[in-house]
TrEMBL record:
UniProt-listed InterPro entries: Glyas_Bleomycin-R_OHBP_Dase (IPR029068), PhnB-like (IPR028973), VOC_core (IPR037523)
Organism: Chryseobacterium edaphi
VOC domain boundaries: 4-116
Pfam families: 3-dmu-9_3-mt
Top-level division of the source organism's lineage: Bacteria
PANTHER family named in the record: PROTEIN YJDN-RELATED
Protein name (Swiss-Prot/TrEMBL): VOC family protein
Amino acid sequence: MNNDIFPCLWYDGDGKESAEFYCKVFGGTITADTPVVLNIDLFGQKLMLLNGGPQFEKNASVSFMVMCETEDEVQKYWDQLEEGGIALMPLDSYPWSKKYGWIRDKFGVTWQVYLGEKQNDQKIVPTLMFIHQNNGKAMEAMELYTHIFPNSQIGGVLKYGDGVGDENHEVPENVQHAHFEINGYSIFCMDNSYDHKFDFNEGISMVVMTDDQEETDHLWNSLTADGGRESMCGWLKDKFGFSWQIVPKKLIQLMSDPDQEKAQKVVQAMMKMQKIVIKDLEEAYNS
């Protein structure tokens, strides 16, 4: 499992409560516990929870598909996620799954609990919904991402015209459901023409941990190209408005230094950066 790529969920102070909730629901563990950043391990996969403040709200443009092997397993997760949550598609039998439901939990994170075949050993799969100005661009996005990242491929693609039933009059060549991998990490995506009241934002982003400056530059330049935009502290938006954090492993190493003063200098240097520049961090560390 590639744990150098993982989702980040934005919270307004309730990250710890949420981390404990997911660890209870899915049988996971909290692996990092600070006031701002919490990391949890669910089924060997990393998720980061960030207490960032009130600026961004998580929404269903990015949901999490939970691949279940039995109906009992679907029911078990659903019953717990339902507590204080809202069902977006009721737990039922659908053409694509004998037992499936889509729910927004009490923390604003949306889950698709699904009985079906796993593509690989990744149990939780982020699912990107291409809506509004992005509707019809799921295929283009998959081609872009698999071109940028190594060890990438596009898997199965089901189009609305392929006859699984479509009551919303979607464009036949648009993507109803597709699977792709970036550097071994699985992601699903879909086009949707419904006029949702939300879209991609910083509430849910994808973190990529890089080995060196060359990899950092490549990902940063490729993802911000052609209409993307740079933000602060390693954050960027790609041309579809989806948020990424490109984070050199060296940054985490230096920030975690037992020498508080040195670690603090690194943090201060990082706060002034858009793209993270490793040599500038090292200079701050050694200053």
